[in-house]
Design goal:
Order of helices and strands: EEEEEEEEEEEEEHEEEEEHEEEEEEEEE
Helix content: under 10%
Radius of gyration: 26 Å
Strand content: 35-45%
Shape: elongated
Largest sheet: 7 strands, antiparallel
Length: 433
């Protein structure tokens, strides 16, 4: 069982164990070719991947065997020093040189008595790679550390990128230009969330209601209470206490949801009715991308040129049966969906992705908030981790009432060609009616 996250500082997601017999990378065949001036496809790279479409990006998971072949089809003999195939990973900042953190290479052909002195006719060479789970990368002050391979990261208008490429090179020798054929790759690390509490696992398996923080204290983290003060209908000042509870451990799989509960208490029942309203609660998932030398440092300096934030989701709520017996108390249950197009949490030199849940000021008709200066004020913030795969055998459920209207989705489609279908086979997400 993966190690449980510490209450105040969730650990990075646990990493799935990769079977000693490496898994196949799938059956979709991708072909990329170089053509001669006459339109002849004289150099081809063929690779199999998990992608569902041969024309899209080849996609691989941690531990996959990346196999394929390189083909030549020449109408006349040509001199060459070697034919190689390599897989390369690198980070790039806009306007700067790429920093390579991974390079695996195989030599497929060299001149020899057996091969001949020149490349001729039709030839084909198979290859196979298994990428390392970790690489040695330079950190702050020139120190080196071992880091797990990050996912590919390519988004429009991003200041930084992580690219994986497969490159075929025909080396021509002195004073001659090498000929290069390459394709980008999609890569997913195999990360798992930690196990939910025993009572939540039981609720998922039985399809029974979730037990709240009072009955399942091990399964929830309740943040410090927030006191909301303001004027109600311009006739009276009111105060409402709000407590946000987030399902523990604070790590979750893509394709699942984060269970939430919000408890309101007040001596003013009218204020309770106004603020304990699903539409009044603004709870967002915030993605933060740190770049540069201090990207992996949780306490590193964050500036506008090295720290980029965007909303990655909004929670939605509905009335809960918990607390219904108390007139001065209202409880709302909620969820925040983690769509599969999100990038997982990861720490890597130069580019690190983190997530937080941020509670924003409440907005309700007839209520004027006197506590906070603006709608973007963050009342509470809690770090959470997002993993790529669900725990094997765990089927998580949505508890939203059937037909419940969820908030408009955030535009997650700024990933270029990276909405791979591969994640879907690991996501177990069912609706509980």
């Amino acid at each position: 069982m993966p190690t449980k996250a510490a209450p105040n500082d969730p650990e990075p997601p646990s990493y799935a164990k990769v079977d000693a017999q490496q898994s196949s990378s799938g059956g979709t065949e991708h072909r990329r070719s170089l053509e001669s001036g006459k339109g002849r496809k004289w150099l081809s790279l063929v690779v199999k991947s998990r992608s569902s479409n041969h024309a899209s990006l080849p996609v691989f998971f941690e531990g996959d065997k990346i196999s394929g072949r390189v083909e030549v089809d020449l109408d006349k003999a040509e001199s060459a020093k070697a034919v190689t195939v390599s897989i390369q990973g690198g980070t790039t900042f806009v306007g700067q040189e790429e920093e390579i953190f991974l390079k695996e290479q195989q030599v497929l052909w060299t001149p020899s008595a057996q091969n001949g002195s020149k490349l001729t006719g039709k030839q084909s060479w198979p290859f196979s790679f298994v990428l390392p789970a970790q690489v040695l990368v330079k950190e702050i002050d020139g120190k080196q550390g071992m880091f797990r391979l990050p996912p590919n990261f390519t988004e429009r208008a991003s200041a930084a990128y992580i690219d994986y490429k497969m490159i075929v090179t025909v080396q021509r020798g002195m004073l001659k230009v090498n000929q290069v054929l390459s394709t980008n790759l999609g890569y997913h690390p195999a990360t798992l969330p930690d196990y939910p509490s025993a009572l939540r696992q039981l609720a998922y398996s039985e399809g029974s209601p979730l037990v709240g923080p009072d009955g399942d204290p091990e399964g929830w983290k309740t943040l410090p209470a927030v006191r909301v003060k303001g004027a109600l209908f311009n006739v009276k000042d009111v105060e409402v206490e709000c407590m946000l509870s987030i399902a523990k451990p604070l790590s979750y799989a893509l394709g699942s949801s984060i269970p939430l509960m919000v408890t309101f208490t007040s001596s003013d029942l009218q204020a309770l009715d106004v603020l304990a309203n699903p539409a009044a609660i603004k709870l967002r998932l915030m993605r933060s991308m740190a770049t540069g030398l201090e990207a992996t440092d949780d306490n590193g300096v964050r500036r506008t040129d090295n720290h980029f934030q965007q909303t990655a989701g909004m929670a939605y709520f509905w009335p809960s049966r918990e607390g219904a017996e108390k007139s001065n108390k209202r409880v709302l249950q909620g969820e925040l969906e983690l769509v599969r197009a999100l990038k997982p949490s990861f720490k890597f030199p130069n580019i690190t992705i983190r997530y937080t849940l941020d509670l924003l000021p409440f907005t309700a008709a007839g209520f004027v908030d006197a506590t906070n200066e603006g709608k973007d004020t963050v009342l509470l913030s809690e770090s959470v981790n997002i993993a790529t795969r669900q725990i094997p055998g765990l089927v998580v459920r949505s508890y939203a009432p059937p037909g419940y209207e969820k908030p408009l989705a955030v535009d997650y489609n700024n990933s270029l060609g990276l909405l791979e279908n591969g994640n879907q086979r690991f996501a177990h997400y069912h609706h509980h009616g």
